[in-house]
Amino acid sequence: MLKLEKRPQPSQLWTYLTPLLAVIITMIAGSALFALLGKNPIEAVATIFWEPLFGEFSFYYRPQLLVKGAPLVLIAIGLSLGFRAGIWNIGAEGQYIIGAITGAAVGLAFYPAESWLIFPLMVLAGALGGLAWAMIPAFLQVRFGTNEILVSLMLVYVAEQLLASMSLGLLKNPEGFGFPGSRNFQQYASGHNAEIITGSGMHWGVVAALIAVIFAYILLNRHILGYHIRLTGQAPRAARFAGVRPNLLILFCLGTSGALAGLAGLFEVSGPAGQISIDFNVGYGFTAIIVAFLGRLHPVGIMLAGLLMALTYIGGEIAQSNLGLPAAAIQLFQGMLLFFLLAVDLLTNYRIRFVKAETA
Amino acid sequence: MTKTLLRISGLTKAYPGVIANSDVSFEITEGEVHALLGENGAGKSTLVKMIYGLVKPDSGTMTLRGAPFAPTEPRAARAAGVAMVFQHFSLFDALNVAENVALGMENPPPMRDLATRIRDVSEAYGLPLDPFRTVGDLSAGERQRVEIIRCLLQDPRLLIMDEPTSVLTPQEVEILFETLRKLTSEGVAILYISHKLEEIRALCDHATILRLGKNVGTCIPRDTSAREMAELMVGSAFEAPARAGRELGDVALDVTGLSLGSPGEFGTSLRNIHFTVKKGEILGIGGVAGNGQDELWGALSGELTTDNEAIRLMGQPIGNLGPTARRDRGLLTAPEERLGHAAAPEMSLTENALLTGAKRENLMNRGFLKWAATEEFAKRIIKTFDVRTPGPGTAARALSGGNLQKFVIGREVLQHPEVLVVNQPTWGVDAAAAASIRQALLDLAANGTAVICISQDLDELMEISDRFCALNEGRLSDIRPAQGLSVDEIGLMMGGAHGMEVAHVEA
């Protein structure tokens, strides 16, 4: 008989091993899934994990890793601060959209003026836009005690409507022959988030993501505010005793995650995506939740997890086009990753004991 | 009647890393009150859980009235005539008495019949109780009656009571004892768990003493002194705290007209509380649990803020300041709950040292943490207060109750408070740790700190307090010098019988 037994202390070893174990179990379960779909499971898993890194066209896919990973990491870092404190911002997707809209709007307002000041202003506007959008659930929670999960999530759908309205109306390209979507920043040098080194995939969003990782690491491990965030998540009453004011923490965590999501949106719209369009958002804000947990809410872990998720995105696309796997199968595959991670997480705090069946 | 009701022989139960019971044997005869005595962690709870079918023994046997008795679940134990009143009540505040009783029954009769039966039983045993009152409105003593009546309705042969008097005033204890004596006169045996020695001497016919899971002796409490029993319990003589005579200084904390609505629906509001504490003085605040202790601690710690003028520290109003600001001014506190309130269970002792010490111990620089200094502070607490742990990197939850309590009290004591407020400082702590915590509080007062000790342990309060008062339904009694107070006077300060009638039991 199997028996779970609480460990006296959380296991350090398993804290690091569980993400790896989750990836392995996902590969196995994913193989079964692909086999049931009538595909060669080994080929499918290899396509997802191997092809982008070492395959024939890896020179193209490798930079994509940074392009797709940066927004995930940037958003996930922000989310992880709140998650550590038990503040659940589920609406990063919305903050990402709003950041893109406000940032792009500032850039487009200056068009066609050329100045090196324009891009920094756009960055600022993007961060503020995301921050403002996140402040809505924060304020409602602090003032009226609403649930931040529901409010932030529902605001995603509001943001999506706003995005559609912007691409069809206010921000529509006047020279776009009536097609929806704004002007393309790739053709506007002052507002373009160009690659810093050509062909590397390294744009300013990647730099921002790296800075966010370092910032979060220092905050959580070396600063009293980070300590209070961790304390609030682990023992809310002890945090009250320590003098933490929960409302300030809600404002800080939601605000920071909103600002970082807004930044991610701005870097995306002014770089890889290029323009505001109806289908601008592709779910980075939701995937970042998986990334945050996969990375154990630890800044360095999140960075690695962001790259891993980017890999499954890219690999998934290759598998879709090369092997004809349905898009839903890839999403399922990503979902499994979070599912198994949460499941094997148990091993950090519990150990499995084999005991002889008791004779009743 | 001297027939053996329950015979326990060689019961053993081991949990990972700890042997809770090792080869325990004793007998309970019909119609006796048998005490089970021991420190916290001695294995009393595990033993009664085995009798009640909640835990399966690893080895050993029990016989009930001559027949083998091995209950696999509480239902089986109840069917065999064993009932238990737990220390922590399992009652729903929002339901009435009869509904609560019905919830515990397999086939509850119609509500009206049940109410009649509750009335009958409660009158027969001198436990007056209205079946239709909401449990949330009952005092702790009355709630206990609900639990007892719930058991009596099963017509038990053996009634197990786990520390029943910890929530009662001395007067209420007398009422309970009358009921128990009435029960034993009918042949019911009572297994009475406690560590209050005088109580056991007054009530019990036999006492079995457990230490570290072993039966270390059975005695007749009436013929044994409390000291002898204590030494059996602890295994050696331990030092009682020593108090030195001391001079009192100026008023350190002045509470005037403190009123506070309770934050919870079934909590207790504080009503117009006045008291002062001088430097070097220990004020003991007693009272039955749930009479506003948590709320008073909250109001003093700053977790609940009040009218600014209601609380003055060294003359300065602090009523609307939060915990951090009060700590800066020298008012330190330790809450009742160790894990989750005084300390974060998953965090290391070093991180927990930071919890209240960050500013006073200078453990941060513009918000940036000095981990080396923090670890030094944690080590100092561990060393000074003899906290048994592998080191400051250990998670708080890995410590035993007594060791963690020494750590969280020590953390405040080492910060040189002007005023220290502690709530239940030795609750659930072994005797040796309790003695050292009390000594620490006495030493602190001797060095000029004003100490407020909120506790439900009257012996503790009498041992360390200079002055004593009690909370009763959110009001504070008169404050009287602790020396020379009689048990009767203390009981009256605590609210007497709490509105409960004295039992009229026909012998």
UniProtKB/TrEMBL annotation, chain A:
Locations listed in the record: Cell membrane
Q: How does it sit in the membrane?
A: Multi-pass membrane protein
The record ties this protein, via CDD domains, to: TM_PBP1_transp_TpRbsC_like (cd06580)
What do the Gene Ontology cellular component annotations say?
A: plasma membrane
State one Pfam family annotation.
Answer: BPD_transp_2
Segments traversing the membrane: 12-37, 65-83, 95-111, 117-140, 149-171, 202-220, 247-267, 273-294, 301-319, 325-347
Q: Which InterPro entries match?
A: ABC_transp_permease (IPR001851)
Q: Name one GO molecular function term.
A: transmembrane transporter activity
The entry's keywords:
Cell membrane, Membrane, Transmembrane, Transmembrane helix
What name does UniProt use for this protein?
Answer: Branched-chain amino acid transport system / permease component
Can you name the source organism?
Answer: Roseovarius litorisediminis
Automatic annotation (TrEMBL), chain B:
Instruction: Report if keyword Transferase is assigned.
Output: no
Q: Which UniProt keywords apply?
A: ATP-binding, Cell membrane, Hydrolase, Membrane, Nucleotide-binding, Repeat, Sugar transport, Translocase, Transport
Domain of life (superkingdom):
Bacteria
Query: What Pfam family is a match, any one?
Result: ABC_tran
Q: Which InterPro entries match?
A: AAA+_ATPase, ABC_carbohydrate_import_ATPase, ABC_transporter-like_ATP-bd, ABC_transporter-like_CS, P-loop_NTPase
Q: What GO molecular function annotation could you give as one example from this UniProt entry? A: ATP binding
Q: What is its main location?
A: membrane
Q: What class of enzyme is it?
A: hydrolase
Q: Which GO terms describe its cellular component?
A: plasma membrane
Gene3D superfamilies cross-referenced by the UniProt entry: P-loop containing nucleotide triphosphate hydrolases
UniProt-listed PROSITE patterns? ABC_TRANSPORTER_1 (PS00211), ABC_TRANSPORTER_2 (PS50893)
State its Enzyme Commission number(s): 3.6.3.17
The compartments listed are:
Cell membrane
Which part of the chain is the ABC transporter domain?
6-237, 253-498
Membrane topology field: Peripheral membrane protein
Q: What is this protein called?
A: Galactose/methyl galactoside import ATP-binding protein MglA
Organism, as annotated: Roseovarius litorisediminis
Q: Which gene encodes it?
A: mglA
